[in-house]
UniProtKB/TrEMBL annotation:
One MF annotation (Gene Ontology) recorded for this entry: sigma factor antagonist activity
Record protein name field: FecR protein domain-containing protein
Coiled coil: none
Domain FecR protein: 114-192
Alphabetized Gene3D superfamilies for the sequence: 2.60.120.1440, 3.55.50.30
Pfam families found in the cross-reference section: FecR, FecR_C
Organism classification: Bacteria, Pseudomonadati, Bacteroidota, Cytophagia, Cytophagales
Record field: transmembrane: 73-92
Taxonomic superkingdom: Bacteria
Length: 301
């Protein structure tokens, strides 16, 4: 493939897959760097270069872990990127003020975010996460509200903190659900350590833990169904109908008003986010319930 841009042509024809992967990770991280409030781009750049020059004068060194089969120019580029990031953090937050990175998925959306050093998280509808980029390279900590699927690269300790418990991993993929008093963790690959109310449970692939009556209960689950919400499919197994309705409200950004008693109603099945009417039919018709759609409000009786 021929590219009009000589740099783009060099990128795709003169570099290996591994080298391109390293560059793409660096570009993904640098794309999140914003200009500090109150400064123009030129002022921010001048200040950044000044900080880097000062680091050079002080003979500060940034140590970059060596990797096999990575050319010297990639290592050099990684070092420059590390210096830029270090200088950026110095002038961006000189007083140690709160500069947490906040990610959010609004109602009716699913959003994937790339974390520093290659890890990622996908947020389900009406979910949010925060992390501190300044401490990330020593200890990776993400605070989560709602539900997210994590894909974690190997490295320093990785923690997911929620109001109901903490999940600790090194390199793995897993799903965390924490809304209100409901809390569950499903392990897809690697190993996960879940802590809640002074209890600890280790999970292997295909295992999940659920918080019930303040106790962590471990069980098996169908690993093929983990985090299918990322592609818009939601599966339930003897789930209280009230919880199913709450999920539908989040996914379709609607309000469902129920005019009948559903306290003892449970649902086993699924719905897709692609079609509201079809989803309502799948959930309510088998239960003998009627529904009516009026703009963004649904009445069930």
């Amino acid at each position: 493939m021929k590219h009009n841009d000589p740099i783009e042509d060099w990128f795709y024809t003169k570099t290996s897959d591994q080298e391109r992967e390293e560059l793409e990770k660096a570009m993904a991280f640098s794309s999140n760097l914003a200009v500090p409030i109150g400064k123009s781009k030129d002022q921010a750049w001048d200040q950044l270069l000044g900080n880097i020059e000062e680091q050079k004068e002080n003979k500060e060194r940034i140590l970059i872990p060596q990797r096999e089969k990575v050319s010297q120019w990639v290592a050099w580029l990684t070092g420059v990127a590390a210096m830029l990031i270090a200088g950026y953090l110095t002038f961006y937050n000189p007083l140690g003020e709160d500069q947490m990175v906040r990610n959010k998925a609004e109602l009716g959306t699913v959003e994937k975010f790339i974390l520093p050093i290659g890890s990622s998280l996908t947020l389900n509808s009406s979910s949010s996460s925060t992390y501190d980029p300044q401490t990330w390279y020593d200890k990776r900590v993400v605070k989560l509200e709602g539900e997210a699927f994590f894909e974690v690269t190997e490295g320093s300790e990785f923690l997911v903190e929620t109001s109901n418990g903490t999940v600790q991993v090194l390199g793995t993929s897993f799903n965390v659900f924490s809304r209100g008093q409901d809390f569950s963790v499903e392990c897809s690959t690697g190993m996960v350590l879940v802590t809640s109310n002074g209890q600890q449970v280790e999970l292997m692939p295909g295992q999940k833990v659920t918080l019930k009556d303040k106790k962590l209960i471990r069980s098996e689950f169908n690993i093929d169904k983990i985090a299918t919400w990322r592609s818009g499919d939601f599966y339930f197994d003897t789930t209280p109908l009230k919880k199913v309705i709450e999920e539908m409200e989040r996914q379709f950004d609607i309000k469902i008003r129920v005019k009948t008693n559903i306290e003892e109603r449970y649902y086993s099945g699924f719905f897709s986010r692609t079609n509201l009417k079809e989803a309502l039919q799948l959930v309510f018709v088998p239960m003998g319930l009627d529904f009516e759609i009026n703009n963004k409000e649904v009445t069930v009786q």
